[in-house]
Amino acid sequence: MGIDALIERIRDKRNPTVAGLDPRLEHLPPWLLAEEIAASGETLAAAANAVRRFNTALLDALADVVPAVKLQSACYEALGPEGMAVLRDSIAYARALGYYVIADAKRGDIGSTAECYSAAFLGRVRVGQTDIAPFDADAVTVNPYQGSDSIKPFLEDMKTYDRAIFVLGRTSNRSSSELQMLCVPDRPLYRAVADLTDRWGMPFVGKYGYTSVGLVVGATQPSEIRELREHFPQLFFLVPGYGAQGGTAWDVSRAFDRMGRGAIVNSSRAILCAWQKKGAPENFAEAARAEALRMKEELGKCIQCM
To answer: Which of 6, 67, 160, 304 is most buried as measured by Cβ atoms within 10 A of its Cβ?
Structure first.
């Protein structure tokens, strides 16, 4: 099953960390962007080339430390067609280095539109007699708020291509409670989403007991993390919100089972922007690696069997 590959990479690295490659231009060392502007002018092509170089250096530096990367599609869409080419190429480069790759696209629609979203990130597009994977991620985040119709196409491609999805459940942003804590009628909405996610995942349970239909649960919601872990032992959690958003290692430790399995914790800005904290723009990749190692050590102290 698709989630087994992620669990095995986490085991091999002894590190339940996913590095978020969500670069905005202000995250890049100024000299890197300046070089590309000098070559191509103040264009989206220059910005995209700078991001490509940034990503490549980070992927090289983190390959023996971090088992997975998560690429936020919006950061690449903002740079137009050139940015989407960087997204495609960064995914391909990461997979070639052995990373498990999560496309953070949060897609949600129905019918043929959902089929196209799923084909883009998990499946294939047939051109004549040739099937082509447009972005070829291992997993993608999805928005469940149009119900099962918005998820079924992803489940079909998961089955065909051995991939995974992560469903938005209890997210880390402050205003999430405006909807996710509403009762419908006897439980919060996020619990209803978790129930559906558990049901969708029943045919996709892997050899480690976790389903390839995972749930996004924010690190800033530790009480809900504990509750969801207790009630849904088969759900694998993607946990954003660690570090810059306020979630701690102790908070996220509640997402794991007694074997230290069941979740992966995302860090984006803390890793991407580590060079800013260290004042080392020339050594941004080394700074990112040092932060990833620090995070690995911190999580290991709080998570059993790591």
So the answer is: 6
